[in-house]
Design brief:
Blueprint (H helix, E strand, L loop, with lengths): L5 E6 L6 H14 L3 E4 L1 H6 L17 E6 L1 H13 L4 E5 L14 H9 L6 E11 L2 E5 L2 E6 L6 E7 L2 E4 L2 E2 L1 E5 L7 H4 L11 E7 L9 E4 L4 E5 L6 E5 L3 E5 L4 E14 L6 H9 L5
Parallel strand pairs: 1-2, 1-3, 3-4, 4-17
Antiparallel strand pairs: 5-6, 5-17, 7-11, 7-15, 8-9, 8-10, 8-14, 11-12, 12-13, 14-17, 15-16
Length: 283
């Protein structure tokens, strides 16, 4: 178990009472002799100077605490994975599969983690995508989709150098097990436990009903080529980063050696989370 000397705090600035949560976290860490490094938005919320840019936080701390929603988490997850820094997500929204720790369990979870409780740390598979000579990392998914006014787009898909399909659809999602409860789920993809080594390929509104979501080994190498001309298509990474794709542009996707170490509450597991977030078992 690593020694935690500095904790970074990243927030959703417009979340209700986030300033009080930041002040509470600072006080909690101060009592334990741990430095709290705020991102710029968090520092402004509590009226102090010295905040860092969000993207600079993971390289300078031993743990990141995210106060917000899944979008806030996804904005920092790839950087935390690159720097091998664990992340604790405190849910200030409604759904939140990544920022899964409720506010009233934040200190309980911090106590458990700082006390060396390793069972609450979940290593999450990351994907890497090579596009235009640059390598990017994703926790949830890589999405190719059409613009709002475009017709369907067509892509060619290879798995381990075997061309498997040339589907026409509104788009295509390549997802990790962690991302199986995100965009992939709304496109009809399966829910996969986070520790299962797999990749999901799910079409968005395919033209043919025979092209269904697939679960393949995490060891697979995937290549996707955009064949459509005259229609705009976008590549989006974790819903946070991306660019307009060009006709015949090809991207390569594979499982990364990097992992995100996500901290969960000691009071719940993955199925507890599904029951809570998806309303399973309610009458």
């Amino acid at each position: 178990m690593r020694t935690i000397k500095r904790v970074g705090c990243v927030i959703k600035p417009h979340a209700p009472d986030v300033d009080q949560l930041v002040l509470g976290l600072m006080g909690y860490l101060r009592e334990k002799g741990i430095v709290c490094q705020l991102e710029e938005a968090a520092a402004q919320k509590v009226g102090i100077e010295g905040g860092l840019q969000r993207e600079d936080i993971p390289a300078q701390v031993d743990l990141v605490v995210v106060l917000g929603g899944d979008g806030t988490m996804l904005s920092i997850a790839h950087l935390a994975a690159v720097n091998d820094v664990p992340v604790l997500g405190v849910n200030l929204g409604s759904l939140g599969f990544l920022t899964e720790v409720p506010v009233d369990e934040m200190y309980l979870t911090l106590d458990a983690f700082l006390g060396g409780e390793e069972r609450i740390v979940s290593p999450r598979q990351m994907l890497e995508v090579l596009t235009r000579g640059e390598l990017f990392y994703c926790l949830n998914d890589i999405v190719i989709n059409k613009s709002a006014l475009a017709r369907m787009i067509q892509c060619a898909i290879w798995i381990d150098d075997k061309k498997i399909s040339i589907p026409r659809a509104d788009g295509l999602i390549v997802s990790t097990p962690t991302g199986s409860t995100a965009y992939s789920l709304s496109a009809g993809g399966p829910i996969i436990q986070p520790h299962i080594p797999a990749i999901i390929i799910a079409p968005i509104c395919p033209h043919t009903l025979s092209f269904r979501p697939m679960v393949i080994t995490s060891e697979a190498k995937i290549k996707i080529q955009l064949l459509t001309t005259g229609e705009k298509a976008y590549l989006t990474l974790d819903g946070q980063r991306g660019n307009l794709m060009e006709a015949n542009e090809t991207i390569a996707i594979s499982t990364s050696d990097l992992k995100l170490h996500l901290i969960s509450s000691p009071k719940r597991n993955f199925f507890d989370l599904l029951q809570q977030k998806l309303g399973w078992g309610k009458q």
